[in-house]
Design brief:
By secondary structure, the chain is α/β, with parallel strands linked by helices. Helix content is 50%, strand content 14%. The chain is built from twelve helices and eight strands. It is elongated.
Length: 300
């Protein structure tokens, strides 16, 4: 399994993972001897996993008001101790995000679970998701775009986050829905696999006492018709991250209603990146676009 572990990082990787500019990392390295990079045969700096861990810890101290000159004088063993003190006295968010990043880089499931469980000691799942996991996912999107992490890293961490959403949703599904005025059916359109937003929305809908029917990824419109045999007032909810594209949006909405015309009472609510290409005025009466999960939850 060791060949799965990323053991060396470029200075660009270090910058992307820590948020500290490469130029600043070089200064810290030269002036304060904080890191000891190795060099490739072509004289390019590479950093070990231990150096990455140290940089993430140093960054946390630096962002909490410690001068870099003072950090540099600390014994190696003192740095993690100080980090733990700060974490226990202030928000764990930055520390948790860094721990989750290390877990991802190393495909370390146990570190992910231990970090998550430590947050759970004094926060609800809802708080952890919104305050820690959403910022983490936003950062991961940037890391993926800059080639700092591979699709395998992204899939690994996404799977663990989905697992937590499933576990918390299942607890709610053990109870009978208390609100009967709406039924929700959540699905992703064809060729759409980005599921975390929709999964979390399903959790929130269940939390509010509604019945939800979760259908998941890449659902053809034709397959949704079957639901109308059971409910004629369904609120369909979907997330358009990459599909349909901006050029396909109008035809998608037309096809949706032509296929669903048997149900006058149903609605389609949509969120996601692609929605920015269309205004509410351009949408059919039965379709409503939302800029965020919070905006949708406000009307539930």
């Amino acid at each position: 399994m060791m060949n799965n572990v990323k053991k060396s990082f470029s200075i660009r990787d270090m910058e992307n993972l820590s948020g500290i500019k490469a130029h600043t990392i070089r200064i810290w390295e030269k002036r304060y001897n904080l890191f000891s990079p190795e060099r490739t045969t072509t004289n390019i700096r590479t950093y070990s996993l231990a150096s990455l861990q140290k940089l993430l810890n140093v960054t946390l101290l630096y962002n909490n008001g410690y001068k870099i000159s003072k950090i540099a004088k600390l014994e190696e063993t003192q740095i993690p101790v100080l980090v733990r003190e700060i974490v226990s006295n202030t928000s764990e968010k930055d520390h948790a995000i860094n721990a989750f990043k290390l877990a991802m880089v190393n495909f370390d499931q146990l570190l992910f679970l231990n970090t998550y469980n430590s947050l759970l000691a004094d926060r609800s799942f809802k708080d952890i998701f919104n305050q820690v996991l959403i910022p983490l996912l936003n950062e991961l999107g940037l890391l993926w775009q800059t080639d700092t992490i591979s699709p395998a890293h992204e899939h690994f961490i996404s799977h663990l986050i989905k697992q937590k959403i499933h576990i918390n949703t299942e607890k709610l599904q053990m109870m009978e829905p208390t609100k009967k005025d709406k039924v929700f059916a959540l699905f992703l359109p064809e060729n759409e696999i980005h599921e975390i937003g929709l999964l979390y929305l399903n959790y929130e809908i269940n939390l509010r006492g509604y019945k939800s029917i979760y259908l998941g990824q890449t659902m053809p419109i034709e397959n949704l018709v079957d639901l109308l045999k059971y409910h004629d007032d369904i609120h369909f909810v979907s997330y358009f991250t990459v599909s349909p594209t901006k050029d396909e949006l109008t035809s998608y909405f037309e096809k949706f209603w032509n296929t669903m015309k048997a149900s006058e009472n149903s609605r389609l609510w949509v969120l996601g990146h692609q929605i920015k290409y269309i205004t509410q005025d351009e949408l059919p009466n039965h379709v409503k676009a939302f800029n965020s999960i919070d905006q949708l939850l406000e009307i539930l």
